Amino acid sequence: MSSLKLKATGHAPAFQHDLFGAAENLPEGFAYQPGLITPQEATELARHLEGLPFQAFDFHGHLANRRVVGFGLRYDYDRREVVEAAPIPDFLLPVREKVAAFARRPAEAFAQVLINEYRPGAGIGWHRDKPYFEDVAGVSLLAACSFRLRRKSGDKWERRTVGVEPRSAYLMTGPSRSEWEHSIPPLAEHRYSITLRTLRPQKP
Fold first, then answer.
1. Tag placement on the chain: N or C end, fewer CB within 10 Å?
2. DSSP 3-54
3. Smallest Cα–Cα separation from 76: which of 62, 60, 98, 54?
4. pLDDT in tens, 41-80
5. Which residues, other chains included, contact 69 with Cβ-Cβ below 8 Å and sequence gap of 6+?
């Protein structure tokens, strides 16, 4: 199993293999692992996800064209704080273990699991995850996507794109997490993304 692990900082894995031929051009702290889960594991996960109570993502009354369901913790946009959510289901624990091994973090550190469902035509605009969370990992199911990253540089934007394949995982730590925004353009095929986040340590 080859892997692309890029200039990681903190707990992230170190660089091992350049899958795209230009690792130095991707954001520091970004790591990518193709084939994190097996085809059978992906099929079983997708079967479980189909039965979850997805709802359209609601951002201050604006309903996005993707659907979400979350476990462990969730960010309350009205209260502007992280609150408890339903416990993480048992069927998600094995993939959390694999993500934790990839990230070299304890599995329990990934306290939030958010699942996004992208139907054909759905995507997600430019954003940076809420600062209450620290490391962010994602596992892709069913369809590939273009994972776009950008960072302001003077009056211009630095831009990068990573092809994220089904069954693969990405990890954002350090500058890739704190300095770069990311987005996914509208998809042609049905896709699930399992996003796992660690909580940022609270300052004393």
1. C
2. -EE-S--TTSPPP---SSS-GGGSPTTEEEETTSS-HHHHHHHHHHHHTS--
3. 60
4. 999 999 999 999 999 976 555 557 799 999 998 877 777 7
5. 52, 53, 54, 55, 114, 115
pLDDT tens-place string over residues 111-151: 999 999 999 999 999 999 888 899 999 999 999 999 999 99
CA dihedral 200, 196, 125, 28 (to 10 degrees): 60
Domains and CATH numbers, the chain: 4-199 (2.60.120.590)
Residue partners of 113: CB distance under 8 A and separation at least 6: 70, 71, 72, 88, 92, 96, 194, 195, 196
Beta strands in 86-177 (DSSP E): 110-118, 124-127, 133-141, 145-153, 156-164, 169-172
pTM of the model: 0.84
CB 8 within 8 A of CB 15: yes
The single-letter DSSP state of residue 132 is T
Q: What is the CA radius of gyration of the chain?
A: 16
Angle at 11 between CA 49 and CA 89, to 5 degrees: 20
